[in-house]
Amino acid sequence: MTPDLNIDKLDLQIIQQLIHDAGLSYAEMGKKLFVSAGTIHVRIKKLQDAGIIQGQRFQVDLKKLGYDVIAFIGIYLEKSSLYDTVARDLKKIPEIVRMNYTTGNYSIFAEIVCKDIGQLRTVLHDELQKIKGIERTETFISLEESLNRSVSITS
Prior knowledge:
This protein is of the alpha+beta class and about 160 residues long. The chain folds into two domains: about 1-60, Winged helix-like DNA-binding domain superfamily/Winged helix DNA-binding domain (Arc Repressor Mutant, subunit A), CATH 1.10.10; about 60-140, Alpha-Beta Plaits (2-Layer Sandwich), CATH 3.30.70. The chain contains five helices and four strands, in the order H-H-H-E-H-E-E-H-E. Helix 2 crosses helix 3 (about 35-50). The protein is elongated. The two termini are about 10 Å apart. InterPro entries: ArsR-like_HTH, AsnC-type_HTH_dom, Dimeric_a/b-barrel, Tscrpt_reg_AsnC-like, Tscrpt_reg_AsnC/Lrp_C, WH-like_DNA-bd_sf, WH_DNA-bd_sf. One of its GO terms (cellular component) is cytosol. This is Lrp/AsnC family transcriptional regulator, regulator for asnA, asnC and gidA. One of its GO terms (molecular function) is sequence-specific DNA binding.
């Protein structure tokens, strides 16, 4: 947390409520936390200005939209100094939804979402493998997502 920013118990409760349901109105959140909607509005604005809260997201059930394949790609780089260049190129692939610079066996670990195995093959073969600086990859196909949650914010 930023040292000059006063984050108190109410701010943490607001953040936790937003993590749980970003669609809550200020009035609904105020009722849950026993403060006015105006207080919630002011606090959220403060958290946004500090960069703690960024945007609003809804969880979308991708399977219901026809995206049936989730895979994880471990990416080995030719040299770790190529990370920035490779990461920039990987960000251009819309099927990659999450990417982390990691320690361990892989330099980059990415999550990819596709409609089917054919699309996954196309992304791996026609797009990912052509990026300069990638030495090789390992692909793991998810059979089931058993847990997906945010961290619980405590005071």
